[in-house]
Amino acid sequence: MSKSLSLLLYNLLLPVGLVFMLPGALRKMRARGGRWQDMAQRFGFLSEAKRIAITRLPNGRNRIWLHAVSVGEIGIATKLITRLLKDSPKTGIVLTTTTPTGYALAEEFAQKTGRAVQGTLTKKRKAADSAAPRVVVLYSPIDLPLVGARFLDLIQPTQIVLVEAEVWPNLVAAAHRRGTPVSMVNARLSLRSEARFQQFGFFIRPVFAMLDQVLVQEQGDVARFAALGVDVARIQHIGSIKFDPQGADADEAQLKQLRGLLQQFGISDTQSILLLASTHRGEEVLLAEVYLKLQEKYPDLVLLVVPRHVERAAEIIEALQALGITTVRRSQLNGSRPAASGSRPALLIDTTGELRAWQCLATAVVVGKSFLSEGGQNPAEAVMALKPVLFGPHMENFEALVDLLLKHEGAIQVPDTTRLEVELSRLLIDPVLREHYGQAGHAALATHEGATAKTVARLLPK
Fold it and tell me: What pairing do the DSSP bridges indicate for beta strands 135-139 and 92-97?
């Protein structure tokens, strides 16, 4: 199928899809803290403040529009941007995202980046550059034909960088017509995603063929993207930015703050912490039942729950309460210890951008979406925190990473919660075993070391 016919078919189907998806998208937006005016931004109507911020970006040879769909991709984007600005301080970045939680995290990063840059300037330059941003955050455009073109007019990027596999046909086509290069970085395709794309390959391939370069995480991804229409000469195996140990350490100031919160909650440095990371509906109760059995043998064991979607906090608290677990929200720890009656208090993390740091403070980490849902969540950050990591049978979205970790004894996969209890009990009683799994997992990810720097080298002008 030709590119023109592919886009025509896409644009005939897109309005129908938007009508069906809009109600659910609006509900999610409101539940996750979004505002109605944010929707206007997605159609290219920016506030004056955002317009001015874009015009004040550095006028170097490179202005990058970098798109990261949600929180996980924002984490990759911020790591990439940090290295970009280190290697090329005159690069201007416009970072777009789709979700309110991703937007909030991106805004926080942009503000910190601005302060960090200001701290390196001389007094004379500070006066001139005091209001000049390095990163401007926007909501991503709805992929209607004229909206992407409007964003291109506003941003005037020298290139577009897409994180992982977020490809929008109209935006890519508009950039292609203007001669604006489009790269995909940290790209990966699970077997399930590849099969889904292949079902619509007749009009997907012309879109992927317009990509100027694709930097993939695993060698096997080269053939997968080539099958989707990308010229194999434009595909490079770089490794994973997220798995790159360089620049992956948690912020020391944040760690200090969270240690203080644990003390405020009554948790001492000598207590063991079981962290449930990125859990999905139903997993909190399933895994909390394991925690209750373990606590009979290890009375000082503490439970921390980090749900994938924080808007479910009230639902989770009610479910844990039914098990006899009194749960306190992390957002309620604001200077005085909240009331947490009962002998089994737990802490629910209802804030964003802290998972990496909480994993550094945990004794063991159980990865969510791996017991009751298919796909799994990414275990890489917990592994890089040198912690023993456990997950259930459903890690389909991370097959290559899971195989790598299991091969090096860098993680533990269990078939069910019965086995999970056994493995956690072994780890809690044996610090040497915990150290073994932490070090082995970290060593396994060493194959991705330098991926961030290699990606930046491919993006910056020669």
Answer: parallel
